[in-house]
Task: inverse folding
């Protein structure tokens, strides 16, 4: 009996071990999430949006206990080392860096220019040259090397902090103004890395590179001459800056086996440029900096931050470096909310023409969209322009005046403020008030004649002095027409730039009592434009009850914008929402931020410069310290995020500079327009070169990462059904392959039709829906920087989305054939795939497997055509435990 009991116990223990083993093996496998069918007839599936993959899929590096080190040895040398092949050695005897290693490539630094920060004035004259300015102090603190230099003659000091991390080196530099004579200084600070990289590749964008050869001009990827502020004022003062501004947040020089990346810390935005000078053989990162002694945060100093690192796989170039950049700063590239996968569209939407917007992959609409949208979970975005203000809620009539006073900007500003004061004091200056959506549902006559303001001078038409009658006011007509529903905060009045005596500045601030807007001829308005706040005023932020000195743009004029958004989102109740007699309440659930054209607008208010927390820069022509407004957009977006409900989306327009404008945005919108080139207008959809189209896509992708990108286009040359269908088939495959939504805003020219209210023929709509379904599946999977797939035909462009999809685009005009080789293991599939299909047709594709790679042969693509390849992981067999009865 004892032996039988032991035998039974042994069998039970064995069964228990088998069950635990099976459960462990099941738990160690990768779970395949359930699939959501996109379209029943397509055979195309997408993973649910709440099971988003990691932003990057890269091979995991082996764990090391001493991942990053800073070592001081007996030879008085301090070594900064990462775990992936980047090393710097600082010699305390000579007080300079003497060696640099980049993935096995050794660079001697014992002679020539120092690896250090050089300072210049705007004219290029040296303020601090490390070769003639000895190190005042060099010390090691944990994994950080601190190097200090002083030039007392020029009154400047630099403090360099070099910190070793497992996968990068952080460089933080502080410049101190020690001059007692110049409290405001413009400084160009250049970190110069004197290494010979000629013969390697300079990367402009993900797939745009060129071999570095000896030449006079440096290699750089920049934007120039962005500012002419004369257009904001009366034209008396024009400033055209010729500063180079970096387009990317990341730069890379690489060969086939090694590479060195220089990136800005996206949490520390600044105006800068990265370049390689072949004459000096120097890899430089130069920052355009301004110092003001009374700066509220920095005082007599300014700082910037960079990261140096190596790409994990140099053969993949900038794509590999970008994957690492995302890993270094994930919050800046992934956003706060769960990743969106739908698109944002422009204009109005007709329920009669398109009953369910979800069928068209619409997640948000930038325009009018009534209450039915909440039933489908589509967000209507209140449109805001954070750096200027059009008051479109009023209508004025003008009549000639026989005389006028001395004309200054004060006259227009005071006339407009007088009108606002009458509104706020309840004096009812308008003859009529209107409610409801445009065209007005109801207008109520208040008096026979409205209050008259002025006279003011009509400059544009040259018709002399005019008086303006307050004829009609809309108290509720969408987010830009909320002027009559709440008081204008005091910060609005203080937002116009003033000089030391309190007079309005002519250079930027602009107000007109009688400006005619193009969309409503004959009607005039009060328009304030080019408004830039005075950060020195006291203001209560939108999320605080007490009054404090406003730290950024969001504390004053930004406060007004935030208040508009909060009212449009219904955060103060239904009183502020537009009630339409047929469609009900116009509810908004998010904000669309238009950042086009506001990247660089200097602030000339002396008081603002003294107290501002804005990053300061300079104008090269005058040497004047200015504030670059595009650097404050990030602060505004973050304040906007705090002011909205947690699930409210934010959409942003405009291309990023330095990769910093898309943080905190959930949707990215780029609107195609006609641009002037070589003396003629070209249409970005029809006439733009393919290389420029790819440059735009890659630039935005490097800022947006996995956020959905929408290009809003007009098919103006599609005047009939056949032409429309042909143009969709010709121009949209590139964007489908790149995972970019195309929002067809309008089509045709005689007449022009709005797509979402006047739909085209069914077969045109079917072709467009195919694009939307495919791009949606790609966005759900998530774009990955490194495709880990190679085409044998050089005309093919390859992208990867998740571990399921690979896209190919044929850049040639003629049909081409290619083979595609994929490293299936590194993209995250545990076993060789069992099935591969054409995602668009569902047709199975034959393939062969050799080790970790599979090859699809004889793939044929039409000229300017694309194909989407879907990889199915092998079926996993799950063993269920047996029940043993003893």
Result:
């Amino acid at each position: 009996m004892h032996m039988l009991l032991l035998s039974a116990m042994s069998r039970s223990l064995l069964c228990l071990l088998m069950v635990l083993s099976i459960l462990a093996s099941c738990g160690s496998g990768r779970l395949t999430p359930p699939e959501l069918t996109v379209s029943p007839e397509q055979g195309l599936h997408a993973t649910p949006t709440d099971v988003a993959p990691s932003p990057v899929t890269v091979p995991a590096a082996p764990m090391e206990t001493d991942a990053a080190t800073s070592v001081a040895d007996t030879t008085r040398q301090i070594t900064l080392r990462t775990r992936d092949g980047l090393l710097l050695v600082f010699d305390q005897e000579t007080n300079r860096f003497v060696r640099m290693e980049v993935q096995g490539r050794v660079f001697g630094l014992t002679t020539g220019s120092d690896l250090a920060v050089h300072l210049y004035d705007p004219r290029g004259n040296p303020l601090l040259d490390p070769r003639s300015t000895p190190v005042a102090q060099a010390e090691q603190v944990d994994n950080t090397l601190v190097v200090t230099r002083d030039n007392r003659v020029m009154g400047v000091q630099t403090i360099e902090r070099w910190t070793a991390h497992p996968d990068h080196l952080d460089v933080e530099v502080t410049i101190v103004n020690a001059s007692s004579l110049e409290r405001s200084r413009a400084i160009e600070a250049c970190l110069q890395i004197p290494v010979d990289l000629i013969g390697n590749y300079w990367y402009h964008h993900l797939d745009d590179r060129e071999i570095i050869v000896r030449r006079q001009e440096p290699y750089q990827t920049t934007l120039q001459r962005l500012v002419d502020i004369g257009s904001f004022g009366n034209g008396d003062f024009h400033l055209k800056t010729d500063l180079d501004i970096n387009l990317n947040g990341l730069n890379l020089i690489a060969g086939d086996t090694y590479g060195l990346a220089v990136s800005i810390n996206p949490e520390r935005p600044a105006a800068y440029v990265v370049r390689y000078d072949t004459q000096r053989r120097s890899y430089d990162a130069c920052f355009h900096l301004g110092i003001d002694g009374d700066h509220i945060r920095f005082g007599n100093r300014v700082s910037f931050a960079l990261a140096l690192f190596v790409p994990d796989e140099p053969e993949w170039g900038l794509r590999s470096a970008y994957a690492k950049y995302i890993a270094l700063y994930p919050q800046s590239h992934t956003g706060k909310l769960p990743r969106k996968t739908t698109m944002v569209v422009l204009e109005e939407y007709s329920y009669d023409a398109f009953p369910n917007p979800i069928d068209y992959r619409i997640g948000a609409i930038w325009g009018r969209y009534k209450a039915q949208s909440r039933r489908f979970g589509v967000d209507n975005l209140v449109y805001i322009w954070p750096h200027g203000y059009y008051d479109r809620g009023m209508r004025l009539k003008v009549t000639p005046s026989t005389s006028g006073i001395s004309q200054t900007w004060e006259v227009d500003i005071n006339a407009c403020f007088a009108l606002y004061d009458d509104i706020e004091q309840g004096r009812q200056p308008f003859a009529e008030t209107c409610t409801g959506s445009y065209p007005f549902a109801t207008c109520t006559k208040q008096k026979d004649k409205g209050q008259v303001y002025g006279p003011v001078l009509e400059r544009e038409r040259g018709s002399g002095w005019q008086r303006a009658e307050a004829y009609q006011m809309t108290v509720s007509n969408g987010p830009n027409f909320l002027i009559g529903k709440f008081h204008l905060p005091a910060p609005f009045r203080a937002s116009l730039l003033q000089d030391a005596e309190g007079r309005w500045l002519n250079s930027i601030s602009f107000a007109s009592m009688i400006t005619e807007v193009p969309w409503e001829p004959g009607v005039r308005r009060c328009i304030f434009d080019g408004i830039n706040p005075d950060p020195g005023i006291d203001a209560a932020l939108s999320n605080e009850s007490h009054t404090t000195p406003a730290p950024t743009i969001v504390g004053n004029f930004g406060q007004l914008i935030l208040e508009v958004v909060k009212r449009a989102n219904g955060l103060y109740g239904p009183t502020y929402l537009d009630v339409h007699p047929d469609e009900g309440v116009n509810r908004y659930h998010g904000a669309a931020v238009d950042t086009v054209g506001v990247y660089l607008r200097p602030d000339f208010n002396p008081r603002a410069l003294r107290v501002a927390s804005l990053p300061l820069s300079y104008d090269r022509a005058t040497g004047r310290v200015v504030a670059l407004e595009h650097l404050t957009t990030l602060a505004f977006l973050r304040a906007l995020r705090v002011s909205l409900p947690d699930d409210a989306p934010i959409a942003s327009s405009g291309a990023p500079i330095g990769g910093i404008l898309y943080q905190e945005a959930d949707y990215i919108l780029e609107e195609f327009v006609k641009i002037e080139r070589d003396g003629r207008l070209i249409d970005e959809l029809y006439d733009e070169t393919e290389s420029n189209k790819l440059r735009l896509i890659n630039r935005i992708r490097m800022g947006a990462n996995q956020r959905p990108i929408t290009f809003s286009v007009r098919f103006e040359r599609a005047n009939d059904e056949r032409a429309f269908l042909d143009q969709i088939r010709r121009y949209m495959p590139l964007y489908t392959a790149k995972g970019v939504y195309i929002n067809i805003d309008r089509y045709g020219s005689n007449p022009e039709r709005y797509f979402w209210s006047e739909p085209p023929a069914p077969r045109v709509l079917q072709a467009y829906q195919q694009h939307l379904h495919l791009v949606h599946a790609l966005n759900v999977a998530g774009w990955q920087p490194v495709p880990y797939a190679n085409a044998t035909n050089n005309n093919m462009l390859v992208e990867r989305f998740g571990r399921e999809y690979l896209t190919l685009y044929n850049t040639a005009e003629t049909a081409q054939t290619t083979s595609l080789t994929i490293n299936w293991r590194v993209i995250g599939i545990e076993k060789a795939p069992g099935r591969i299909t054409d995602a668009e047709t569902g047709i199975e594709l034959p393939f062969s497997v050799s080790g970790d790679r599979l090859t699809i042969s004889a793939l044929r693509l039409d000229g300017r055509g694309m194909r989407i390849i879907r990889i199915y992981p092998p079926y996993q067999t799950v063993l269920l435990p047996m029940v043993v009865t003893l």
Remarks:
- The longest helix spans residues 2-28.
- Residues 8 and 14 are 10 Å apart (CA to CA).
- The chain has a mean pLDDT of 78.
